[in-house]
């Protein structure tokens, strides 16, 4: 006889997600900064502890992610024509995303007027000769670079090491397994310390508002508007433009991608939308052989929404800190971001580890991360959705590049599945 005992429901506190806790922290932190500015300023130590823990995991994340992503891509010979076409497609999309986010931030200047506590303590990078920049990017020891927190040297070493693993083939399998395990453990570490994010966000928002007043709220609102406008603009102009340029049926594509987009928007998780994405791009008409090669690579190497946001957030913090970046510094930052954004798909808040690595290397204040984390919950839905749309556009473009044709009709009896 089946049991009639009522199923225990989770407590109220367990039903609140981490994102909701961070939004609650923002709602509490903003008025607290106005009401009790002196007390709010003393809370800065809470966000400082959180940021130190983020810094502690940078080196393991970079080594694990970059070596796994680059070395695990298969041999150069096995990559084949499809793989190379996919890589060209990804690099074009992510480069345009990076430049788009950077350009929107320079145009709208959302960080101007925002005062970040502790920003004056940041060490601004010195302008040095180009040959010295190149020399300083080459490590003499990985351990030394990790100990000093020199992110650029770590990126250079891990990139070359990953290429060497790819060339070594099966002999490098134990190394790649280790890198994969290290990355997984590092992200679990990140997951654990993210439980400190709500008090860190509360402390950061309170101390920032106490220092900057209404200008902070105006700056965060401008960042929100800039983020949504740039993400939507990229999706329509770049991704939509690529579909039109390759003569992919636009209305049919929108019909089949609408559900993965909505799942990603509702869950803020590319992983949750992945089954729908793979199924629906096949129903749209992309051949399985293209999906099998392009889709796995796209998930790691084609993070358009995340790449755009990281560029935008970097310039926002530089503007808020009053740091003027030279052209050489901007180009070096863009090149560093181009590499460090690879392979972090599906990892909640992994963008903040990437930003922490960049900020530490280029003298931007880490305190800006906690401020970004406060508004991130409002930006994450559209950022994740653009990532997912990019995962659908890339296989369709590569399929057309290969000469595939798609039906042009739009099904009328295709009721959307319910989101999980």
UniProtKB/TrEMBL annotation:
Gene3D superfamilies: Sodium:dicarboxylate symporter (1.10.3860.10). Its main location: membrane. It is a multi-pass membrane protein. It is found in: Cell membrane. Keywords: Cell membrane, Membrane, Transmembrane, Transmembrane helix, Transport. InterPro entries: Na-dicarboxylate_symporter, Na:dicarbo_symporter_sf. The keyword Flavoprotein does not apply. The chain crosses the membrane at residues 18-37, 49-70, 82-108, 151-169, 189-211, 223-248. This is Cation:dicarboxylase symporter family transporter. It comes from Actomonas aquatica.
